[in-house]
Amino acid sequence: MKIRVKLIPQNTYQEINIKKGSTVIDLLRTIHRTPDSVIVLKNKTPLPVDDIILDNQELSIIQVASGG
Asked: Are 6 and 58 in contact (CB under 8 A)?
């Protein structure tokens, strides 16, 4: 399957190939990110890590920062 991912704040797009039935956590592993360092959005709605990704889906990945 092929999906399109927008990386924020870099404001870049990537076409990523993943297996059919892959979840958000599988996607994050593919792009070497951890679930506690990003938020994955579909149509401005956050997705849980166990959500299944569909072919040709377009997602946004926002890198989060924390600190004090």
From this structure: yes
Q: How many CB atoms lie within 10 A of CB 61?
A: 20
Alpha helices for the chain (secondary structure H) = 24-30
* 62: its two tokens: 């926002």
Give the integer Cα–Cα distance in Å for 62 and 55: 21
Condensed to tens digits (0 to 9), the pLDDT of residues 3-37 reads 999 999 999 999 999 999 999 999 999 999 999 99
Please state, in angstroms and rounded to a whole number, the distance separating the CA atoms of residues 35 and 29.
9
Q: Tally Cβ neighbours within 10 Å of residue 63.
A: 12
Domains delineated in the chain: 2-63 (3.10.20.90)
Q: Which of 16, 11, 10 is nearest to 58 (CA)?
A: 16
